[in-house]
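Quick one - inputs below.
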Amino acid sequence: MKRTSILVLGTILVAILALAACGPGDTVEPQEAAHNQLSVVDALGRTVEFDGLPQRIVVAGKSSLTIVDTLFLFPEAADRVVGLVAGRQTPGDFLQFVDPAFEQKAVLEVEAGPEQIAPLKPDVVFLRSFMAESLGTSLEQIDIPVVYVDLETPDQYFRDLTSLGTVFGNEARAAEIRSFYQSRLQRLEAALHGLDEGEKPRMLVLQYSEQGGEVAFNVPSASWLQTVEAELAGGVPVWVEAAQGGGWTIVNFEQIAAWGPDAIFLISYNTDPSQVVQRLQSDARWGALEAVQGGRLYAFAGDIYSWDQPDPRWILGVTWMASRLHPERLDDLDLMDEVDQFFGQMYGMEQEAIDGQILPALQGDVR
Amino acid sequence: MRTYGTRASGQPEAAILSASGLSFRYDGSGREVLRDLSLDVPAGAITAILGPNGSGKTTLLRLLLGVLRPQQGTIQVAGRLQQEYSRRELGQLVGLVPQDEHIPFDFSILEYVLLGRAPYLHPLATPGEADTAVALEAVRAAGLDGMHERLLPNLSGGERQLAVLARALAQQPRILLMDEPTAHLDLGNQGRLLDLVRDLATAGTTVVLTTHDANLASALADYVVLMLGGSVLEAGPAETMICGGKLSATFGVPIQVCAVDGRRVVLLPNGQANAAKGQAGVPHRG
Amino acid sequence: MTAAQRVARLPVAGVSILRRKPLVGLGLALIIVLALSGLVGRYPAPYFLSPPVLWQDEMAQKLVLSLRLPRILTACLLGMTLAACGTVLQMIFRNPLVEPGLLGVSQGAAFGAALSIIVLGGSTLLMQGMATLFACLGLAASTLLAHRVRYGGWILRLILAGIAVSALFSAGVGLLKYLADPLTELPELVFWMLGGLWGVTWADFFYLVLPVSLGLVVLLLMRWRLNLLSLDDDTGFSLGASPGRERALVLVAAVAATSAVVAVSGVVGWIGLLIPHVARRLTGADARRALPAAILLGGIFAVLCDDLARTLLAGEVPLGILASFFGAILFMAMMLSKNIRVQR
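Output:
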């Protein structure tokens, strides 16, 4: 009996080892040099090589809305993006106005793995950098090229735009987009020039979330775009020490009162932020806050999507925040004009379409 | 070398197991469990260590086994110092039948008895056919013939004790240590056990058993060691030791011994035990 | 007999092989499960990939060879190791309710990996090294603590110390979770604490093969001795064993293999608790047969759970959740059908 069992086990172990020996190695096989070869450096510093322009682009993984919206800044995206993820915020809600054929694109779940992505036969898959371990490595194991993007801070944005320009073969467009953003940032910088630290209002960005009846107020991570936007808009973000960990950190009312900010920007992804602001203004505790009494509790502006998140709209978010924090320095700013310019130049939307689709969707304390 | 006397053959007894000047206390407790204890166990005979509860019998057995090391004193096994033996050598010499063996898994009798072959096997080895044969023989010798496939939890208390004995027999030891071997046995099983132990002794195995049952000692033992308070009170042949005076001194209560059919029978103390200790009896209802 | 009749009799034949020669039956079952698992997944459609498609589709071949195969084999090793470790722990501690997650081993490994992800950047090799280091630290801490405790017998002391050390490391992981960036590291940690094999590559498998094989071989060589170690110390001593040293050797082998798999797959519970019981039901309590049976059964169970984990839904269901679900149900069924005796 014991001999048989040892034999069976030995056979199984040997079989396992033999199978393992047949398995392909872990290295990416070197590409043959082709005359159309493209080389892209992605957010993780990797160089990814392509034989010719990728024609079938897929966006996958978590937090991919920003990637999709950024891709569609390029006109080629409509044809080449064949698959994307529809998370809590559906890209189709907005992009149907940019690309009429948008609804026909393949939609993946957020948790889709390599086996769901492979049937789309992508030439490249775009992922946020943090998806490397969980999805990127597996995709590369089956020889699907992956390009990582960050798109979290302005610097990362401009760097990733360059990569996207290369992938689309349209570096000119990438430069256009970059100059659009940079001109707005420079204008902002000029308007806020000479502002010393004491003059910068202490400000707080809060996200209101209500899940399963539980109401919570969260502050964004210190490394996130929302914090960068606050600084660019000429404010002092008071929550930075509390948010070292990363992600949305829950804060209680005591902490908010202790910070005593001059201005509060309230984000709400699921419910209308203006409604939330109204509710808070009539609340006794919130009513006692300096910012609320001074009328400086703002519902974060947005159209179909809120303008705070890492989405091309962030430039609108920064501009809007600055106009609230320093109205006297930006009194020549016409926000509606900014909206028209953004959607016109970035997404190529006709004025009619903007008036018809975007303006009605405006939310928060935009005007 | 002390001897206890001579056997019928007239030859002086040799001590196969001897302890000299043993003192022992458990870690952390102040009390000395054994105090300057010396004893000799003659080869090929049955020796009973008899004493009241708490006199240190089990501790003595564990010292003789080698599990515990005395703070003072030495133990000799078959002529050599106990420390000089390797664990395996000792295992081949000395076997143990503990009072309560906890076996948390449902081994069959054969599987369990086979464990007795461990001293003859390298740690990485598994028992072979020869070992299985010895184990089966031990099972048969213990009177559990034909039951070797039965699972331990399904045995009665007596059968379990016999299985433990079989395990010790599979060890083929020269010395067998037994701790209160009849503690959970009814009269029938006690009888079987007694027969087995006598057969063992006749075959040349030395048996040392601890007990507080004087009748058992009387019925079974060739030699008796009387223990009290951690030392040996007296030791000698059973006929001499099992008598009213010595037993009373050991157990602290008046004990009578009478002879029935040439066998000595110890009578349970009757009514004077508490008086002897100077305690009042249970209050009567007035 | 027609072909159909022959096929119909296969399950009966299978069960009878299982009854008469359980190890052979389990070995065959394992091989069949491994082979069929390669055909299960979500490409090109959910659940089953038929062999003709596999033959022709290059992408399917890549998927099977590069993604499914290493994952299936890793799941197999995972199940084998956890089941072996569970059997060993149950016998050494004479307690049928003991698990690898008891001595601070699994939680220590989790803490080590989490620490390396947060603090040191989380390269795979570094993570696995830290996991092994902290698993060993957990075991050492439990043992040292148990020696100092002055309450109860050795077994109770070790269990108490192990619970304390496990809780400490679990809390440590929780603290790291709170400090971690949820977009960058937390998903990994969460997945990690619930167990999952989503990113397994051939590199991970090759890392595992050596420590697991060594550990399993040592345990299999000592399998008869395990019976001995499950007896009282005095009895074991009288039979010529050095219970302390032999137990230490067996424990080290089990822990080293377990921490290697926990580093790759996260903390997967219930396999180490349930499979030894099922194995003992099949082959009896003797570890000469129960240990190999547990190893084979553990491999089968883990592979089946992992097949479900990656096939049931579009996204990954954490392996630990499925193992707990089925493990707990089976365990309850076993408890209801026959009392598990713990002799004291």
